[in-house]
Amino acid sequence: MKKNIDQKWVALVGNPNCGKTAIFNLLTGLNQKVSNYPGVTVEKKIGKAQFANGDQFDLLDLPGTYSLTPESMDERIVTEQVLHWTHGENPPSVIVSVVDATNLSRNLYLSTQLTDLEIPVVVALNMMDLVKNNLEIDTKKLAQDIGVKAIIPMSAIERWGQDELLDAIHGSIKTGNFVNGKFPISLKKDYVNILQPLKELLLTNFSYDDRFATAQALRLITRNSTIDIYELLLENGFSVDKSFMSDLKEIRQKAVDDFEEMGVKHRILEATLRYAWLDGVLSEAKLIVDTNLSEESFSEKVDKVLTHSWSGPFIFIMILYFIFQSIFTWVSVPMDWIDSGVGWIGLQVLHIMPPGMLRDLIVEGIIAGVGAILVFLPQILMLMFFMTVLEDSGYMARVAFMMDRFMTKIGLHGRSVLPLMSGYACAIPGIMSTRTIDSWKERLITILVLPLMSCSARLPVYTLMIGAFIPATSLLGFINLQGLTLVVMYFLGTATAFVLAKIFSIFIKTKGKSSFVMELPPYRTPLWRSVFRIVFNRGKVFIVHAGKIIMSISIILWFLASFPSNDEASFNNNSIQQSYAGKIGHAIEPVIKPLGFDWKLGIGLITSFAAREVLVSTMATIYNVESDGDGVVELKVAMQNDINPETGKPIYTPLVALSLIVFFVYAAQCMATFAIVRNETNSWKWPLLMIVYMNTLAYGASLLVYQGGKILGFG
Amino acid sequence: MTLYDLEDGKIATIQSFSGEMELQSRLVEMGIMPGIQIRRIKTAPMNGPIEIKVRDYHVSLRQEDAHNIMISE
Fold this sequence. Notes:
The complex is a heterodimer of chains A (about 725) and B (about 70). Chain A is about 60% helix and about 5% strand. Chain A is mainly alpha-helical and about 725 residues long. The longest helix of chain A has about 35 residues, at about 530-560. Chain A is elongated and about 95 Å long. Chain A starts with 8 loop residues before the first strand and ends with a helix. Chain B has a 5-stranded antiparallel beta sheet. The interface of A and B includes residues 109, 275, 310 and 404 of A.
């Protein structure tokens, strides 16, 4: 096996919930996500870390996994990577195996699998802060027994032990020439004989050593997924003999048949033997503290309320309601600040700059457009904050636990809950986090309905229309009608997602059964520095997005809305109708008129296909060009006061607002989402299906609302 | 008897598995295997999955899968 020592890098591998990402953050200082929910780290995350002597190295954070025989998509990523290393693709100098010290045997299972790889392994014994003080670990002895370079006790949360960990990594790199031991688990003679042909096939085709060949032979008879990974290796250009795959399958089948004849359960052979060996080592080291199963942990006590048959679901619904109410009420203060700040900046520019085209462009195009979007920053940060806290505290796993029954009834999976709820923030991370769902059918259906969850980009549109046209009266004294409308819109999207999931589950047929073996991690106070990092990052992405897409669209739109014009110095109401933008809007007006939308909203609908929130900046730019008054016009007021010159009535009524909101609940507008779906499903078929069904739904529902509302005498 | 029949709060030892083989691999990889003691903690709302404590952690699995885990109290 080749080893490329020049490019030093280190891989972080561990179980879900072992605090791997917290260690990654501690060592690299990079912005990352720490979570309690099994398997949230699904992207490839690399950071730079530093040894005591100042030398830098790359650190790769791999998804959480329980073993090297994968079941779900993100576990497969780990196994695939590991196999690439053993096939000579720039392997890490050291693997840091992160272990939850409160859960030794299950975590060390993976560590010992990693020691078969011919790469030095250092164990980071994390969460030592939670270990009861009667557990004394002789780390030197244990390291020797299980065949790792070192075991370093530490706590990423309390921020200690990282220097020792770095030293251990450094030491393992320096000692370099790693000599591998033999396979630690003794196999019966019969087993060795049955595995021998499989081992030989691997040894002749690859530069495996005896230990790794034994390990892989065992893994090949454990799960079919191991064969799939060899097939992937071929596809990824790791050249092996053409006949290799057919030989592999044939020889494997023979071994499987032999084991079955002996009455040996081959699918659990490696795990059974490895645990027997590991449990032996651990009890000899007095590390198996006979777990007092009847002892009630703190989390269990909390769960008596939080996952109780009645109070559990009730509290969950109350939490959701609280989040959506607070998005509307609490953040109105900072929103007003931003709003007046934008107005103030517009006025300053108006005073400083000489009148002319450039000033109009900056005030009416850029400041009005970008400003209209920035107002929604507090709401998006707030939503992101709540989602992160729920996830990091361990509550999300409980939600999955409580919802699994309901979710399976509608064709989804308990693990669909987190992706669907992430969809309230943004569909893209939501779709990526579906990789923890182990069955393909349920994963696909989750992806297909996920964009119906109202994402934060729709929030500006909802807020604008609700704020302008739904009265802020209160019902029963405590329910704000505006907040209620918002909740109803989120509910509409969510309920439709559930109905469609059921329909899709009838039509999509795949083999394979799903299961719900999911860890319920202990409750923890969220790591606030990581929560604020995530929220800050989300805000940054939003602003950069606003800066790039929205600014350029605002500028283009300003030109389209301002030209051609008879008199370039002053625009009037008629000139915008004559402009290019006006012509485009009027051209599509016949199509959208039945929905109650005029030509201005038509322009907004076109631009919103780049990103939903662009509708708001588009309307802002149009009204600012139209008014050409002093400073920045407040969009809400402008829309309320817009009068149809023919009828003398307001153009936008509460009914039009409702119709538009419903359109946005359903419409497939964010092109980035469909690019991600294409990647995740590996086909254009599914994103196209989504675009068609969502837009059909949007038009139909909007038509129903507007025409139905008119018949009933509203608007 | 099976894990499905075990009352909430009761402790039992796993004897063997039957049925769905893929799930067995996953359970054993997580250290849930014959000879190991477990405590059934609760059943999720709406008669959903069950929660058990095993080794040092809590894990959930569906009732239909609990049918395939033979236990003795």
